[in-house]
Amino acid sequence: MAVEFTHLPTATILGYPRIGRRRELKRAVESFWAGRTTADELEATARDLRLATARHLAGLGLDGAAAVPGSFSFYDQVLDAVALLGAVPERFRDLVPTGSTDESEGPLSLEGYFTLARGEGDKPPLEMTKWFDTNYHYLVPEIGPDTPIGFVDDRLVRQFTELAEPADGGQAVVTRPVLVGPVTFLLLSKAADGAPDGFHPLDRLDDVVAAYADVLRALAAAGAPWVQLDEPALVTDLLDVPFDEVADAVRRAYARLATGLSPAAGATGTAERPAILVTAPYGDLRSEAGDGLALLAGTDVEAIAVDVVKGAVPTGPVAGLETKTLVAGVVDGHNIWRADLDARLTTLEGLSAVGAGAVAVGTSTSLLHVPHDVADEPRLDAGLKSWLAFADQKVAEVVTLATGLTGGRTAVADALAESTAAVRSRAQAPGVVVPEVRERTAALTPADVERAPYAERAAAQQATLDLPPLPTTTIGSFPQTAEIRRTRAAWVRGELSDAEYTTAMRAEIASTVALQEELGLDVLVHGEPERNDMVQYFAEQLDGFVTTVHGWVQSYGSRCVRPPILWGDVSRPAPLTVEWTAYAASLTDKPVKGMLTGPVTILAWSFVRDDLPLGDTADQVALALRDEVTDLEEAGIGVVQVDEPALRELLPLRRADHPGYLDWSVRSFRLSTAGAGTATQVHTHLCYSEFGQVIGAIDGLDADVTSVEAARSRMEIVPELADAGYGRGIGPGVYDIHSPRVPSVEEVTELVRLAAKSIDPRLVWVNPDCGLKTRAYAETKESLRNLVSATQEVRATL
Q: Which residues are catalytic, by number?
């Protein structure tokens, strides 16, 4: 059908949670992986979820054509772009079917799609890393000079049609299909193995843009009035491509997609493409490097969405905006605090100065990063709930602000008054400010973050621990079986007494310790059966936090987490981990690590308060952990790991902001660990990060041993550490735990040898990439057995 162009609605959002209100998609995907359901059944569940979501959003007030974004994914939006383009790495080429009538390539099956994400046999999956400054993970495309690129999968078009022409005959919803923009897709890609020196994925821009042009034609033919192309790469300068090159890529891409394809070409008025909304979430488009807003305004796209929560608003006209809709992201899509609607409306009213043809109200980012609905949280205090806005409440805020912008303040006077009262209530609530906590942080001195020199510590620790070369250990958690989860749930419901629960958890700890001794690991862990999540477990015991029942958000694939809400000043009313760790240590003569989550990660994986500088909050959390380290030492624990996998995650997207962040983040870690004695070995762990950008900070943590993700990148971090002169213990991961495949002895041996060649082998530890919580016991045992065997083989050559 022909496209009928309309103005972009004045109220819209950039994306919505796709896992389902009760994690329906997670369960359906995992059932498919387990072979309990078919691909057709998974497709049907996903189709029902998409239709219900679209109708729900329309019912919340996003009722204009294309106000609802079509932002669904079975696993990851970047992987979706890989599938759409057929950009499959060579090792997975056997998964790509040929066309039915010729030798052209067809789309990946669902089985093939998931294999790229999870790996298969001796084929490792696509690398995974953090999505900008969020706790979402995306899969990294691998692009080389010969990687196939074309429009091979029309799933995006079919998903638009199924909502615009629903098979059930019910309410139709004209959505706005969402796709990762072509420039961001290539900037987030890595060069494929075997690519020549000097090649960058951005060299394939013309091919990707040609394929995107075909996508836009197909969407126009299906009747899509708008398409959303996400270009968050424009708000960061951490992708190692100069702004001038990025700007040139943007101009070339959108000259082809916007100028080169007419929205109303030919005598019949048939459109070659939908109208284009380009989004730039997660930060400021304008920086010292260049003005991304002016860059986009200079193209012929019809609308631009900017993040007004983290980005600044121009104070004067921007050339080119007079022909475009400016979607102002004034509602925070990245946190859960209720907006001050009066202040946000004032910001919107001031946007008349930029000279846009029209202003629409939106979210700063996709709502992928927040839970569905505050109304699903009956256990939260009513006062606290009044301060919060999850996805549905944020949609309501967008609709209210759009009404106020077009109809005047009197049209939304009641909503403005209610918002103002909630903001005032939050500021005055008991517990938001605790004088004793503020006094303790104010009294800190530089001596509180210093330990003895590393050489002195290393000698004392070796004398105490007596570890062999290439010590083996794990990162902390062991598989959380269905029985463990059932036991914990029964205890939470009151169906098990505290004594019965303790007995069950101790039995699991004893089994885990025995397994590690059988495997021959050198430094053991208690396995963490009592922990529901590495952050939530601590939040449930610290003052200043609350946790949710249904506040799930997607971390990657089918992995969902419930970020705690950090609402007030933080303190530790009682020990957090000592009982379980001390019990494990009583079962073995080998060292047992105490396992803590670090202050930066607790902040990064929580919905953190926005009324206090992050550094101040981090110090409060660090002092609570410092007290825990002291108690672990007093219980006889000589190895303590303070995990900071999110250190890189919170790194600001602009380099100019790095020094301030690294100062408080490193300080908070050292504050949590510097109270440890010289003979206590302090470990930390970092995962799924571009470590090269924070090597100085890793060194600044002053941990005795640092374990890092390295298996998927095949030890990419090791030469960087060697070049930086890193001189303390390092455990580059040799086993990728985010894939169900079992690494062979030969594979692990090769990785251990690579590490031992680049770094003094006396400093190298051998460990998995991350905790084993999400894995099954059968694959875990085999993988760890191979890890120990490989280590013994390399030890024999030292």
A: 738
